[in-house]
Amino acid sequence: MHNIRNYVDRPLAALGCVAVVAMMVVTVASVIGRALFDRPVPDIVTIDEMFMAFAVFLPLAYAQLNQEHVSVTIFTDWMPVRSLSLIKAFGLLLSSATWAVLGWAMFFGAYRAWETGDVYLGEMSIPTWGARTVAALGVSFFVIRLLLDLKDELRSRPTVSPELDERSNVNVTEEHR
After folding, report:
1. C-alpha distances in angstroms, 167 versus 74, 89, 162, 164?
2. Which of 46, 47, 61, 74 is nearest to 7 (CA)?
3. Residues 6+ apart with CB under 8 A from 48
4. Rounded to whole angstroms, how far apart are CA atoms 89 and 91?
5. How far is Cα 141 from Cα 16, in angstroms, rounded to an integer?
């Protein structure tokens, strides 16, 4: 199951990167079209908004895999290793539940947009369900990654050796005690 990082997390992050490049290319094309031919790319803001769903939501699982989300440790830096593990597990459980609810709501919104034929206002009348579905898929894979991390956290039983200072998680020699 941990091969999900190779077969899912990394490719989704790569698609997010491709979306950023596509946003840049389309935006530059629109600027050049406006400057040279007085014809920008129609609905450029809507197109960029759709690419943004790819760029923001698809790499979430990969960022979690690499522990690259922002975390504030001012209250946990002084805690023992076991307490930190429990807090991390609780945070992963709470995050999984919260993001699962958000993902479900996003899938429901995408389905409703598809069912009703919802489109962005503009020249091209681009359907909204595509970007909504991509965002919901990104959140779903993020939830899976959070649950895998929770499983790993619960399986690892942190123990503290006598040479390990519980508060700083740094090896301490006898001279420094």
Report:
1. 13, 19, 12, 9
2. 61
3. 23, 26, 27
4. 5
5. 13
Rounded to two decimals, what is the model's pTM? Answer: 0.83
Contact status, residue 140 vs residue 147, Cβ threshold 8 Å: no
For the chain, what are the domain ranges?
A: 4-176
Q: What span, in angstroms and rounded, lies between the C-alpha atoms of 132 and 54?
A: 10
Angle at 7 between CA 92 and CA 96, to 5 degrees: 15
Name the percent of the chain in helix, strand, coil, to the closest 5: 70, 0, 30
CA atoms of 89 and 97, how far apart (whole Å): 12
Which tokens in the block code for residue 157?
A: 């039983």
Residue 75 reports pLDDT greater than 90: no
DSSP-derived secondary structure letter, 41 = P
Under the banding of pLDDT at 50, 70 and 90, the label for residue 79 is confident
Backbone angles phi, psi at 164, to 5 degrees: -105, 125
User: CB–CB of 55/23 below 8 Å?
Assistant: yes
CA angle 114, 131, 104 (to 5 degrees): 70
Are 4 and 144 in contact by the 8 Å Cβ rule? The answer is: yes
Q: Which two tokens stand for residue 141?
A: 């894979």
